[in-house]
Structures are given as C-alpha cells and as structure tokens.
Queue: 2 jobs
Job 1
Amino acid sequence: MDLFQRAKAVRLRSHNEMYLLAEDDEELCQNRNGTTWKAQWQVELLDEGQPLIRLKSCFGKYLSASNEPLLHGVTRRRFFQAALGHRLDSSLEWESVRDGFQVKLKTRYGHFLRVNGGPPPWRNTVTHDILHLHMIEFSGRMILWRCNSLETGAEME
C-alpha cells in the first residue's frame, strides 16, 4: 500500500517489461511502450481501514475484474474498464501486496492481476485468477508489477 500512497498516478510494468494499457473499447492489453498516455493509471486510495485502491484509466474508467472467462473452459477471468456507477462495487477495488520493490494486485476474492504470454489468443492479454500452490513457482512472477510514479518518472521503492 505504501507504494501507492505517495503517487497520484502510476504506470504498471510486468515481469516481461510490458506495461498495462487501457484501450478505448474498455479492453486492456500489454505493450512495451510505457510512454503512451494509455499506460497512465490514476491512483485513488480508499479510506476503509484496509490497503485498498482503485486504478482509473486515461478514459476515466476503472480497472475492473469480471467473472467472464478469457476463453471457454479456462479459469482465468477477463478484465475491462468500468464506470464507478452509483453503487460501490468490489470488482473495482484492489489490495496492494508489497513484494520487495514490486507489488501484487489482489481482488477481495483472492484473485491476482496477471499477465499472459504465448501465442494468440493469450499474447498480450491480462487476466485474473487464484494462484494455486502448484502454480506459485511457475507463474508467481506473472503477478508481480513494478510501479513507476508519473510524478517523478522513477520506479517507486
């Protein structure tokens, strides 16, 4: 949480040196170009006695975890950008879990924001899933994000 308390806006960079980008069609993707305005996420701290944040895209919508699978028959779920709306929705809230100089972003239901790689349809996608014990060694790095503060342009420590 302390990584986000000092920043009003961040860029999130994954282990594969790609940035989390918002698209104008409410989708998300990864891209190596972190200088684009689509890689900027405004940080909103929630004052609920918990280390919760919301991440707002350049399109004014929030990073939101859906229940829709990325592909039929897989456990990984899609992300999209959603408007805040009239009622609060926990799918827009993220717990930041510090891991050294990196952070894991976790939903209230234990799912982690993760990057995917490989051939299409996985290439450059972003999903969320529960990280099972047998997956930790293999995919643990896929849920780690480096936060670059837009105020200083430097990696946050």
Note: The domain at 2-149 is CATH 2.80.10.50 (Trefoil (Acidic Fibroblast Growth Factor, subunit A)).
Job 2
Amino acid sequence: MTTIVPTSEEDPFLAVVQFTSQLAWADAGPEAAEPEISRLCREAEESIVAGKWLELASLMVTSAELVSSKMSEKDLECTYTIICSLVKNANSPEDVLEMVNAISSKVVQQPNDKASLRLKILFNLYNLLDHPYARFQVYMKSLTLAVEGKVTEYVVPSFKKIDNFLKEWNVDSKDQRELFLAIAKVLRENKSLVKESLNFLTKYLATFSNDDAQVLGEAKEEAVRAVIEFVKASSIFQCDLLDLPAVAQLEKDTKYAPVYQLLKIFLTQRLNAYSEFKAANSECLQSYGLVDEDCVTKMRLLSLVDLASDESGKIPYTSIKDTLQVKEEEVELWIVKAITAKLIDCKMDQMNQVVIVSRCSEREFGSKQWQSLRTKLATWRDNIGNVISTIESNKVTEEGSQSSSSTAAIQGLSVR
C-alpha cells in the first residue's frame, strides 16, 4: 500500500485536484484552462475549510476519472491513495458509506482501463475502513470489477475466507444472497472451478425459503443454471439442490418442469429413466447444450452407485450389465471408472461374478441421509457404551480377584 506523508492537512488533496484539472484542460490553452483550474482548486479548498469531505471526495474522484487514461499507473495509484484517505475524515458512519459509494462506483466505471490496478485501489480502500458494511460494499464492487475487467484470479483466493468475512460484516440474508451470486459469477469465468461455482450458486439458492414467495421467482433462472451445471459437470456426482424451495418451484413451472424432472432423474433414478426422458425431451437437452453421450456416461456411474446402495454389499455382474445397459465384457470397465471417480470402494470377485462393496457415495444428502446418519451414530454410541461397560465390569472383577489373592497371601503369612 502506498503511504502519503503530507506536509499539511490540505496539501495532498489540493495537489491532486490541481494535477487532475491541469491534465483535463491541457489541450484547451492557458486562457481557457487557468480559470477552470482555479475554480476547481477554489471549490476544493472551500470544502476542506468547511469540512465537507464527501463533496471533496466527489470532486476529486470525478476529476481523476476524467483523465485516468492519461495517467501512468504510478500516478493513478498515488492519486487514488490520497482520495481514499478521505474516508478517515468522514463526519459520520453515513458519510463513510456515501463516500465509499462515490469513490468505488467511479473506480469500477472503466474496468478495461488498468483493471488490476483498480482492483488494488479497491483493496487499499477496504483496508482503510473500520465500518463493516462499508467494507462489504467495497468487496462487492471488487467482484464486479474482477469479472468485467477479466482479473478474477486476484479475488478468487479470498473466497476461502468468506465465512469469516460474513461474521465481520454481519450482513442480512438479502446481502448474503447478492454476495453468493456474485462469487458464483466470478468462479464461472474459470472452467476449472465449476465445482466451487456450483457450491456458491447452491448457497445463493439456499437463502430462499417458501416464505419468500414474492422474491422466489427471481431465483428461477439461477436455479435452472445450477441444475444444468450439475448435469454437465463430469466430475460432480452429488448435490443438495432437489429439496431447495428455489429449485422445487421449477417442478410446477410450465417452461422449466423438464429441468426439474432431469435433476430428479440424476439424483434419484437410473439410466432407464434418463433414456425415457431423452426420448420425450430431446429438444430440451439440446436447448441447454447437454450432450447425450456425456449424460449417459454420468447416469451409468450414478446408476452403479444406486445399485451399490441398494444391494446388501454385493452386486451381481448381471445386475450391472442390465442396469447400465452395457455389454458383459464392459462391466468391469465401468466398475473401475466408478472406483476412479471415488464413488465406490469395492472388490471384484471374478470367480463368482459379483462386486463386494465396502463404501459408496450418496447422490444427495437430504432428510433421508441425515436420518440414516443419525441411526448409525446412535448405534455406534450404544456399541461404544457397551464396550466401556464391559471394560469397567472386567476391571472391577480383576480388582476384586487381586484383592482376594492379597488377603489370602496375608492370611498365609499369619499362619506361618
């Protein structure tokens, strides 16, 4: 971060106004330029004397943006360092918010002009602030700039700290909603971060409840996007979309009902259900850019997971062949694919033509899965309790036996 050490309180601010106004009027000639430069400097000085820091910030940032393309990166950074420092002079929290909005809105107006530097300016402004909500506003502006200026790589690392940021900012559900959607859009720019993008898009959709009937409709397009992203993703086999109200509303929507049906097939049904859907909705698949071959591949793997969860630890090769609709010699190939994708842990008994499953992934984690987990935990707790009771019982028995042996030994010594 650049550090400015002023010789007096007003000098840096007046210097910036004079510098930017001279650049703005450089081609107008002295007769036209000098009166305008003097006027701007006078307005700035009056604002400083009156302590009208918001007006000064608006004047300075407007002047700076008019000539930003004429400035070197060093000059632009120095100029904005001085402008941003004005937030420390704000007279109230409300003024801080207005000042931050005035500065950050101008910074993001020209995303294609020195985008990475503009992002750095926003980060510097963020670090100058003590006001939690003002920090949130600046962070949101940085996400917008990152996407429009194509510099998303600079903001992606910060997403790991989002939970901590949310605690610090203490924003309401509406602001959280905007944040999650903005992050999903940033991640969407990078094709290698599809899983992370879908994760934040799911967080966004999860902020809607059935009580939000008036705004639930605004999530419809993003709900469709989330479903299509999940279906397209070749390495994502689990999601928690099905029971979300923002997604469930698609089921009764004339236009999007097939999308919800497709999600239901990928999360709860097998390949035969997808084949029937494709026969009746081929245009729907094409309209969303879904490739049938890719969908079939994913559904075969998901169907194999479904088989593994249904059978009691053993799956006959014939069941895999029929369910996945493959040739007999391809069965083991698909088992290996499922293992590679970490969907199942198993051993192949080639002699008996069965797969012995030790673990399989869940396609979704809803109320049914929570209940199953609760039951398992209760069983484990009871088993551990029984083990502890047995150990304590054995310990008491052993101590009693040792006590009896000691008594007998003492009595034997007394006899002698």
Note: Residues 367-415 form the longest helix (49 residues).
